[in-house]
Design brief:
With 628 residues, the protein is an alpha+beta fold. It contains 20 helices and 22 strands. GO terms for molecular function: phosphorelay sensor kinase activity.
Length: 628
């Protein structure tokens, strides 16, 4: 709007009569003389002059409305209101003009005859335009304040700078983050607080962006106290009033970086743990490509772990047959969705060595995808496999040896027993037929010979029993030890009565044992206690207690005892203690006891004091579910 006094009115396509001009003049409205000519301003000329603010208002005829609306589609030019003058019948044209650009309208007859009314309409149009300008200004100011508030209260730091990096404006968040005042920051360059990049690299980055394009990068901001913190920056390249400027948003990512560092440390630790595992550990996808391989796996392939990743078995294994077999295993695990375990499979290493593995493979879903992969771990059991094969061979040899020993024992038993019986028979016959001719010394010699033959017979029987412990035994089963002990007691009844032996036992439990061999164990230990009781009648006590899932039996006597240095030897075949001359044992009974206990998975040992008795201890397993 013009700032001069009075109103300057332009007319377009209209000639204003003199009397109307005089009336308008009385209202301080001046109509340019140039516009009153018959050749009034053209629409284009009027619009151009109005744009330079030469006029305060314009009156246009209805004949120029369409051209005017095309030329100036908005309500006026730079705040200059337009009044449309229409002839009768063109009211619709006036309404359209009011909707698009006109501030007021009058009838053409008003222009030619009612200057006062025309002046009123002109002032009304100008007043309305002035109100609109004020409202627009208030709206713009309100918008500016809102934008400033958004700018200052943005959660991220914001800085506006030019193409050289000079700071033009900053928000409150940047002030808080850096510890500078706003005025200090506005006098600085971006390079003054960006410690992660030098100004040359920043300018190179800025120059690569097109106007309207956004770029991102990470940087490091330096505070006023010299400390730094990491930031992520979003940069918008703008053109404002023909000048290139940059609007940058910087977010403090300290927590994210700390989280990423912690996550990376956890990954590194997990990787270290994986690589420390002595077994092969690996992951393969559905295509057979390795997603992960620990150092052990890579060593077998002659590669580094990262060299294995992305390859298939066919690419890392020298043996194609093995590679295809492993691939089939992987397909089966993925297709079935079930784990698989292979007790024994062979793997040829990069060195050409064949290793034996025990392998387990498990299907699992790769995180963040719908793909199924295979997690595998394999243990090298080459040495164990070799040992087991050798052990199997030794077992076969031992089994064959035992069978041969069994056959030998039968043969020896038969072939030796028969001559011994013949010797005993002829000695008895000699004594009975020629007793009158034999003196006491001869009879003593005959007794020695008979006793030796009988002793040899007992030793052969005992040796045969020893050989049958492993070959003739039954599978252990729950057995009432008390009942078996009573049977053994009855078997020794005659010997017990002859020696006036006293034998007592606790309430014996049910144990897991071969019934026949348990009876032999009791008989041998009781016989041993009676045999070496000394000069007094034998006294034997049998006790038992439960310990750690098994029963510990104790068979104690008050006999002659055993020397400490003999305590291990007495369990060997034909080994007798130093007090054995006081008994008639075969030297095999205790060896049989040890073999029986060993077969049942137990232990046997002795505690003794010479002249003060002996206690034999042995353990037998308790039946499953037995609470004692």
């Amino acid at each position: 709007m013009a700032t001069r006094e009075g109103i300057r009115l332009a007319t377009v396509g209209i000639t204003v009569p003199q009397e109307t001009l005089e009336a308008l003049s009385a209202h301080d409205i001046e109509v340019s003389t140039d516009t009153t000519a018959d050749a009034a301003f053209s629409t284009a000329t009027a619009a151009d002059e109005m744009a330079t603010d030469d006029f305060d208002c314009a009156i246009v005829s209805d004949s120029t409305v369409r051209e005017w609306s095309t030329r100036v589609p908005c309500a006026g030019v730079d705040g200059c209101p337009v009044v449309v003058a229409v002839d009768d019948g063109n009211e619709r044209l006036a309404r359209d003009a009011l909707d698009s650009f006109a501030a007021e309208f009058v009838r053409s007859e008003t222009v030619h005859g009612d200057g006062d009314l025309l002046a009123h309409r002109v002032r009304t149009a100008i007043s309305a335009a002035t109100d609109v300008d004020a409202a627009t200004h208030r709206d713009v100011e309100a918008r500016r304040k809102r934008l400033r508030a958004l700018f200052d209260k943005a959660p991220d730091a914001v800085v506006l700078h030019d193409a050289d990096g000079a700071v033009l404006d900053v928000n409150e968040r940047l002030v808080e983050n850096l510890g500078y005042s706003r005025s200090e920051l506005q006098s600085m360059s971006v390079a003054d607080f960006e410690a992660g990049h030098d100004i040359e690299s920043l300018r190179a980055f800025w120059s690569e962006l097109d106007v309207g394009e956004t770029g991102t990068l990470e940087g490091t901001h330096r505070r006023a106290d010299g400390s730094t913190f990491p930031v992520e920056i979003w940069l918008n390249k703008l053109e404002i009033d023909g000048e290139v400027q940059f609007l940058a948003f910087a977010r403090d990512i300290t927590e994210r970086k700390e989280h990423e560092s912690a996550l990376q440390r956890a990954r590194d630790e997990l990787r270290q743990i994986i690589d420390l595992v002595p077994d092969l550990l690996f992951v393969k996808d559905a295509n057979g490509e390795y997603l992960l391989a620990n150092e052990t796996t890579a060593d077998y392939y002659g590669l580094a772990p990262d060299e294995v990743v992305g390859r298939t078995d066919a690419e890392v294994l020298p043996d194609e047959t093995e590679a295809e077999a492993f691939r089939e295993q992987d397909r089966h695990v993925i297709d079935s969705g079930e784990p698989t375990h292979v007790d024994r499979e062979e793997l040829t290493t990069a060195d050409g060595e064949t290793r034996v593995l025990e392998t387990t493979k498990i299907p699992f879903e790769v995180a963040g995808t719908d793909e199924t992969a295979v997690l595998g771990y394999a243990r090298d059991i080459t040495e164990r496999d070799t040992y087991e094969r050798e052990l199997d061979a030794r077992r076969r040899e031992l089994r064959e040896s035992n069978e041969r020993l069994q056959q030998f024992a039968y043969v020896v038993s038969h072939d030796l027993q028969e001559p011994l019986r013949m010797v005993s028979s002829y000695l008895d016959l000699l004594e009975s037929e020629y007793s009158d001719d034999l003196d006491a010394e001869a009879r003593e010699y005959i007794d020695f010979a008979v006793d030796g033959a009988e002793r040899m017979s007992r030793m052969i029987d005992a040796l045969l029993s020893y050989s049958r412990v492993e070959t003739r035994g039954e599978e252990p089963a729950p057995v009432d030890a008390a009942a078996v002990f009573e049977e053994a007691h009855r078997d020794l009844k005659q010997r017990i009565e002859e020696t006036n032996a006293r034998i007592e036992a606790d309430d014996l439990p049910t144990v897991l044992a071969d019934r026949s061999q348990l009876g032999q164990l009791f008989r041998n230990l009781l016989s041993n206690a009676i045999e070496y009781a000394g000069d007094e009648p034998p006294v034997v006590d049998v006790a038992v207690e439960r310990q750690n899932g098994e029963y510990v039996f104790a068979v104690a006597d008050e006999g002659v005892g055993i020397h400490e240095r003999d305590r291990e030897d007495i369990f060997e075949v034909f080994q007798r203690g130093r007090n054995a001359d006081r008994g008639s044992g075969t030297g095999i009974g205790l060896a049989i006891c040890r073999r029986i206990v060993d077969r049942h998975g137990g232990d046997i040992w002795v505690d003794s004091t010479v002249g003060d008795g002996t206690t034999f201890y042995f353990t037998l397993p308790a039946p499953e579910g037995d609470a004692g």
